[in-house]
Design brief:
alpha/beta; seven-stranded parallel sheet
Length: 193
């Protein structure tokens, strides 16, 4: 693994622990000699993550769509900032640059981005790991939902197990580095067709 993609909020969230975790993740990524790939903003958790990685001597690559340059306030101190035409191209570029992905607390955009990465892995489009840094139990209900989807036969257990949930940055990076993708067909009940 050479680079980690991180999806997180452009807001700092309601508890200082979220920003502390974003900074800890940026520091941990840089401390392992890995590059950080993220959304390119200088505000919220995104900014704290990038600033911490830069302060720890890391390379930081931002990818931001043109339409968000003013809204998310682009970070001008990055190793590189790629400005792309659309959100679709942002995600594709981040997927190209990163070897593994982590979601920190965030909103709808964060969920959509990490779920798309997970879906691509489930379909076999890539073999890259994805995880959730579960700060203050932020993703507990999401984890329960994923288990529920397995129980209701909408998701296979090996596909659920593709996701890493951890409260610790070091454990998360270790799990991403050790990841082995499952070799299982995505479709449930396909043998019946």
């Amino acid at each position: 693994m050479r680079a980690v993609g991180v999806f997180c909020g452009a807001s700092p969230g309601g508890d200082p622990a979220y920003m502390a975790a974003a900074r800890a993740m940026g520091t941990a990524i840089a401390g392992r000699g890995l590059a950080l790939v993220y959304g390119g903003a200088k505000v919220g958790l995104m900014g704290g993550l990038a600033d911490a990685a830069l302060a720890a001597g890391g390379e930081v690559f931002g990818v931001m769509p043109e339409a968000l340059m003013d809204k998310e306030i682009a970070h001008t101190g990055l190793t590189r900032l790629d400005v792309v035409p659309s959100m679709h191209e942002r995600k594709a570029r981040m997927a190209e640059l990163a070897d593994g992905f982590v979601a920190l607390p965030g909103g709808v955009g964060t969920m959509e981005e990490i779920f798309e990465i997970w879906t691509w892995g489930q379909l076999g489009f890539h073999a890259k790991p994805a995880g959730f840094l579960n700060v203050l139990g932020y993703f507990d209900h999401l984890r329960a939902f994923v288990d529920h989807a397995v129980g209701e036969a909408f998701l296979k257990a090996p596909h659920r197990d593709m996701l890493v949930f951890s409260q610790d940055c070091g454990e998360m990076l270790d799990a991403l580095a050790a990841y082995k993708p499952p070799k299982v067909e995505k479709w449930i009940g396909r043998q019946e067709l």
